[in-house]
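Re-running the complex after MR caught last week's input typo. The corrected sequence lines follow. Everything else is unchanged.
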Amino acid sequence: MLNNLLPINPEVAERIDMLDLSFNKFGVDPYGIDKNDLKRAVSAFAWAYRNYFTVDNYGLENVPGTGRALLIGNHSGGVAIDAAMVMGSMLLDAEQPRLPHSMIDRFIHQFPGASQFMSRTGQFTGNPDQALRLLRDERLILVFPEGARGTAKLAKDADTLVNFGTGFLRLALETNSPIIPFGFVGGGEALPTIANLERLGKLFGVPYIPVTKWGVLVPKPTRFQLLYGQPMKFEGSGHERDEVCNAMVDQVKTKIRDLIRQGRALREGQIGEADLVL
Amino acid sequence: MRVLITGVAGTLGRLVATRLVDLGHQVVGIDRRPWVDAPEGVEMFQYDIRKRPAEDVFRSRRPDGAIHMATVTHLVHKSPDRMRVNLYGTRAFIQHCHAYGVKQAVMVGRHTYYGAAADSPLYHTEDEPPMSAHAFPELADLVAADLYASSALWRYPEIATCVLRMVYTLGPTKHGTLALYLRSPTVPLVMGFDPLFHFLHERDAAEAIVTALSRKLHGVYNVSGPSPVPISTIAKAAGRRTLPVPAALINFGLGRLALPNLPPAAIDHLKYPIVVDSSAFARATGFQHRYDEQETIDDFRTAL
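Corrected-run output:
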């Protein structure tokens, strides 16, 4: 149980009630999501999402309101602030609210508090078995194929992409799920990281500890651009050779790179919403 | 039919035996412990399954079906010969089933086989390897007994053998690992962790075992009831107070502060969930639990 002192925002509660989840007599879904905890956590988060940050969402209609799908996008900004903003846009701004299940790094569930919070809000350690099961259960999963190497990008590289694995694509093929590519811009501005302390991180059991321009790990109020592209559907079994999968991964990567480019142009006022090709 | 049950004097054993008698079967019970007020229809033998007289029971009674429940956990049986009870007991059971023409054998195992870890998926399926034995040696003999019993599937294909990996049971008898954990008015939790616990009502557990036997089930199956519930929610619903304790303090206290002497990995079972997918069992037998999560906890809480 999360802190019962956190107030529930009635508007958020209404959105959570609209989620396509089935809760048992204790208000817990089969994956351990606690309805009340979710309401409290999202209520607190909604304040930051709406007031501290601003997220300009584009192409929200590209995310299906029901059924299995994978949200695939770029990581940046030292910590997974982008994941939080995607969660916010899906829970608070999408016409039909959805709870994305992020496939998170394995170190997170080893931390007291973090483990409990993630467990009660449906965020699991990235694991192919877990992802397959969720997709077969018609859930929406959120994957950053760059993983921790993605958040480790320093601010100057925030809009670039590092290596993508093929895992997400194989999951999409095996479960015949659409991939919704997204581009997220502004992570490098919210938390401009100038260095990553890997040795210190190891001591604390994390991949690295990011250092920002102002030293501490506090994001500044930032406006983000979040662009959801049209669903991409690939044919296959998920057991193809790597070359075959890599070609498909490259298509997704190219699309995400294009979404980032457009997001950057929007951010800098070079284009308007009407010019977007999602 | 005639059904032999080892470990019949245990809580689950008694429930299964009583249910079988109610259904009109004859029950032959073997246990080191007595069962004084065993119902009519249960023929009771106070023997050790590993010893010669137990074999004579198989020889003279010639059961059609047999259920093996004479395994013990480290929480109940502290001595090092637990390993012998669990493994030699299972071997004797399988050998006697083979030698004396048992047609259906059911081995009742545990879902803790899969182990608890930060990165393991929710909903384990039967094909997954046991991932806990190395870190938690107290579980190793039960894991080995589970795998050893499965070897009867190819060793003696003429016996319909099934291994059930059952989740924790809970109910009015207040017996079992989960009940033991919830025994006192204050239940310690590992601070910052609140794993899902998978449990089913003890009467549903007995019913599942009887169902496996009557459907002549063959293979390894997970058995569960209602969907899992966070341990703090279970504790509160059972009328207990919860006391979150930092993991470091628990680790320090193991073997000292009135806590059992367990390896630190044992604490993983209070940090991470072990949740199983029992859809294969449901498909094969049509089994459905009768008690939901609330009714199960209420039965545990309100029992005298």
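None of the earlier attempt is carried over here. DSSP finds twelve helices and 13 strands in chain B. The longest strand of chain B covers residues 104-110.
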